Amino acid sequence: MSAEMLVVLLIIFIMFLALILELARPDMVIFSVLVIFLLTGILSPEEALAGFSNQGMLTIALLFIVSGTVQKYGIIERSLINWLGNSSRVKGSMLRFFLPLPILSAFLNNTPIVLTFTPIIKNWCQQHGIAPSKFLIPLSYVTILGGTITLIGTSTNLIIHGMLLDYGLTGFSFFQLSLVGIPITIVGFIYVFTLGYRLLPNHKGFREQVMEDSKEYIAEMKVNQDFVFSGKQVEEAGLRDLKGLYLIEIIRGDERISPVRPTSIVKTGDRLIFTGLISTIADLQKINGLTLETGSDLGLEDLKNGHTELIEVVVSDQSSLLENSIKQSRFRSKYDSGVLAVHRNNERIRSEIGDIILRPGDTLLLLAGSDFIRNYQQSMDFYVVSSIATPANLHESRKKGVFSVIVLLIMVLLVAFGWLSMFKAMALAVLIFIMMKLITPEEAKRYIQFQVLLLIASAFGIGIAMSKSGLALWVAEWLLYLGEPLGILVILILVYLLTNIFTELITNSAAAVLMLPVGLEIAETMDVHYMGFAMIISIAASASFITPIGYQTNLIVYGPGGYKFKDYVKVGTPLSILVMLITVTIVRLFWF
């Protein structure tokens, strides 16, 4: 092993540790490694920047816009709600609802699909008196599987396609992945609604738990005439930085002041609503002029009014909130909303809300303005998993929604028949959407997830460093050393397992970029066709079922479903094994 190879291996190992320990956002960790490779001379500026001009990465950026435009008008959401109907047969109705989802996720970004349908499924389960945990993990798994059917089904497919083109090789055709994607989707679908359904827990969702135990989350204090700070601002009255408590609303007759700002005025007769460590409310009772309303029957739903809503969000793995406490991030000022409660691993974090340092997958219940969802639906800080309001002009919205779907289908056909490349087709679709005023340039910019693109582009450079230093060849030789005596089937399993482990521990995009150079080195050494290894790596990088952190959609349903980490391990492990066996078998039959 050369010195350069050893340095690359050491830096990548440190990168893995940083990602696993969540020392910083994944995009910043991987970008930092790219900069180190650039500064040490391992990569030239041209090599370091190669990922930023890669066709696959740029196609993903365009797909964010296309997918966002199609889903903006809610045509698919409304169609599926109508398709679901009002049947009383629980399992049959959900099967009916889930059947179109793999097809949708084969052509659209599955993250917004899961975001859109999580509240729909939760509401439906609530109406029928069943636990949403029985259907939210299946929602994530089914969309992941559906994404393996086509070239645009998931960013992983496009990343590998772009890398193959960069290597001067032929990329995937539009439906080439269907050879594996359709069988694993069918088998996976059957699994999640048979054995998987039995393994799923009967957990109540986060919001439902909070509603049932509302007295543990909120307390009410009455402002009497002898309160010396009556007529003063909240900050002057000492109600801003309380130990363990958080003032979220002031009720003054029919008026409700929420969220409460430091400059809000406290008046005699006000009802002050606090959340946080309700056990510390006794400290407030020591203040003259404040009385605890012990007989109050105020519940969380009562905090809502025409201007505020209870909104559930899940902290993303790309969030800028991860490195600071809620207080340090100035959450209340930044998002104009108050945090009622924080759940992690299906348990409430019992500490001062302002001091909680957030992690990916944490679920927050917010008291926020009615425009919160519209303003932050595309935020990379968290996933909003509350229902989106129906557009005001439904007829106009329906026409634009149908037109956007037609444009997408035409683009797919142009690519499938080889008349346009994927990049050109998506660029044309975006141009049509902007020219026809289905979206504005500002909306298009909001749909692009720049942090995801930074991660992918940076990972490309790391893949080049692995190839250039000889590390990819070294890993390939070790895999061959272990598997070659046992045959090609074992080598395929080892490549699949290594890719899948990387996906579960870091991200699917990084796993794909790191493993493709290894797969290509193995193919060249064995003198076999590279496409089989590209297929194996593409599927393995997408098939993340065992942890909530390996794939965004798993993270989205983590809190709303009230899941624990072990639920993913229990339900996802058999599915991972099934998908691996089917994938390896098909690749072995068709390419080797």
From TrEMBL:
Record domain RCK C-terminal: where: 206-290, 298-382
Cellular component, GO annotation: plasma membrane
Single GO BP term: potassium ion transport
Sequence intervals crossing the membrane: 28-44, 56-75, 95-118, 139-160, 172-197, 402-435, 447-466, 478-499, 505-523, 530-551, 571-591
Localization annotation: Membrane
Keyword check for Oxidoreductase: no
GO MF entry, a single one: monoatomic cation transmembrane transporter activity
Gene3D superfamilies according to UniProt: Regulator of K+ conductance, C-terminal domain (3.30.70.1450)
PROSITE patterns to which the protein is assigned, alphabetical: NA_SULFATE, RCK_C
Lipid bilayer topology: Multi-pass membrane protein
Entry superkingdom: Bacteria
Keyword match Lipid metabolism: no
Keyword terms, alphabetized: Membrane, Repeat, Transmembrane, Transmembrane helix, Transport
Official protein name in the record: Di-and tricarboxylate transporter
